[in-house]
Amino acid sequence: MGERLPLFPLGTVLLPGLLMPLQIFEERYRVLVRELLEIPETETRRFGVVAIRRGREVGPAVPQTYDIGCTALVRRIEAQPDGKFSVVTVGGPRFRIGSVDSDSRPYLVGDVEFLDDVPGDEAAAANHAAVVTRLMREYTERLTASGTVEIRLPDMPTDPIALSYLIAAAVANDLAERQELLAAPDAATRLRAERALLRRELGLLERITTVGSSELNRITPSSN
């Protein structure tokens, strides 16, 4: 059954379970936040985050967004002296946009259908989860060993749905790739895609390390 949900187009993808802090400065979204503050704290304060496919976050033009977004569940709102708001949200249920109303409120409002998160084929999900967990550990170890960045790997969830979103948040930096993972129909499909993504990233790391070592080997210390 469809529901109406305020929409916040952004140049990024919110994933279920992922924290997203926001600085609200445009007046139309200040209106949204003030309306959220009118909702009792005992009730759910939420809006929908949708990634922008074409267009800009700011300005009068309505951007073209992807059809599938993620609910932002409000955890904290802090009013700033200049009228802006600092908002902390966490990703909740995904949704699919049926239609968008750009006239009734200063911000966009979508008629949305919330999507269930399911594991899919349970045997496939378990298999992909085991491989992805191993590849993720290898990936973080190689990044740390290369000196590129030091990553402290959190405890990996045993639930394939939660694991699939954690991996998406950690590895998928490209907006289109992250959106594709968000839109995956089930955890098994998402984990299979992440399995390929991690292998690609490991291959790139291997090439970078090999090229770097090769270049170092070509340097001959000069004799004085």
Automatic annotation (TrEMBL):
PROSITE patterns: LON_N. InterPro entries: Lon_prtase_N (IPR003111), Lon_prtase_N_sf (IPR046336), PUA-like_sf (IPR015947). Residues 5-202 form the Lon N-terminal domain. This is Peptidase S16. It comes from the Bacteria. PANTHER family: ATP-DEPENDENT PROTEASE LA (LON) DOMAIN PROTEIN.
